[in-house]
């Protein structure tokens, strides 16, 4: 019996067939070091990386593709962004909904005495009120760092309204697009985003080991944490300051990047609306099904269209970790239990430290998969 994978909020699986095929072809036939050597293979490998960059730029409405730096994952991109721009004395606003990839770098900067930090709470439905962001500003606020959607409840955040406030107040706006890029539209211009961190391996349908950071023009200076070879200006003892090289020291993950580009082409060819509608349909089925099972408690805004395809729930009287193990080992269902690297969100929800069970279907799941989960939960709670 094959596993029914419902953990796409962690990483999407499977990938479109064309991603596997493109990566294999690239690795077998084209994988020279891009831009390092003058030979044709190297030039072509560089062209593949640059066309991936251009495709992503178009997807997020970025006017200048060179302002997108490839990264290892979203965590890497968030670290590059926050640690690259924050300076001693800066004040940062974030929220309790954030993933540890935002919370931990900010915590360590706070501990080191570099920044001061304010963590805004959402309303009871897990939605942040833009006015609360405005109220948290001090005269030292340099950055507002927020997730586009909670990875625990899937609840979407009003990033455009928040971005407008941040722009009016003269600070920089960093959005963590981990849970939305590839399914919900993001436009760095109309959403007033200065820095957008994204993974390549979730809804962009690329492989693990990929991600990126968009750095808008309002960011005048960014300090790289990684310096080294960039294939140009090698006679210079200092790392280049121009984009994207400033953030891309060392040989990039070319095979991952071409896989990411292929995943994004799949999203383009299928249509982001078609992908989202499919996920909405599955989530409607899931939300309705869960309501018919006694003892289930769900979290976050109860709205299919204001949420990503991620939902957290608990079963009365059962430890989420045990439920996760039973679903995996007895029902072949892969879900994620626990606190999902978002401890403050669970504290806010009252589910810390045991957490919740998180379901996150993707484009390749079917209604049958949701039914299998609902059936398993009925059996587990002895309601069938
Ligand atoms: C909201 C959010 N931000 C950041 C990350 C970190 O992403 P990555 O695993 O690509 O580093 C995740 C991962 O699940 C996430 O859900």
Structure write-up:
The protein has 384 residues and is α/β, with parallel strands linked by helices. The chain has two domains: 4-14 and 271-380, Alpha-Beta Complex (Aspartate Aminotransferase, domain 1), CATH 3.90.1150.10; 17-269, 3-Layer(aba) Sandwich (Aspartate Aminotransferase, domain 2). The protein has helices at residues 17-30, 40-60, 74-85, 100-111, 130-136, 159-168, 254-270, 272-291, 320-331, 343-349, 367-380, and strands at 4-5, 68-71, 90-95, 115-120, 141-147, 172-176, 195-199, 211-215, 296-298, 311-315, 333-334, 336-338, 356-359. Strands 2-8-7-6-5-3-4 form a seven-stranded mixed β-sheet, sandwiched between helices. A four-stranded antiparallel β-sheet has the order 9-10-13-12, covered by helices on one side. The longest helix is centred in the N-terminal third of the chain and has 21 residues, at 40-60. The model has no long low-confidence stretch (mean pLDDT 97). Residues 10, 73-75, 99, 101, 147, 151, 176, 178-179, 199, 211 line the site of pyridoxal-5'-phosphate.
